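SAMPLE LOG
Freezer: B-3
Tube label: C17
Construct: single chain, 118 aa
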Amino acid sequence: MAVTNGRAESATISIIAAGTVVTGDVATEGVLKVEGQVIGNIRAGQQLLVARDGSVQGNIETGQAVIGGLVTGNVIASDRVEIQGAASVEGDIIAKRLVVLEGGRLNGSLEMRVEPAA
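STRUCTURE (predicted):
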């Protein structure tokens, strides 16, 4: 969250709506919500949200990922990955924290990274 003239500004939220197919890489410094389909790599500086009917075919790099749909590719999160109950990840995950709700699926390897002590 940025502060301008003493006021806090929320992060930019970009939405790929249901029925929309994006072919190619997508990058944002803020939050990206995928309700449609992305065929390509995603870099979302703060957070990536994949809706229940959303899908990503490509690698993901983000701060936090909340996955409710289908991801085919690797997920690298500097903080946290959440795989919701109807979600499926076909690929490897690298994150500090992982939450998998009952019914969520992960078919790949998991590497938990902890920041080195100062």
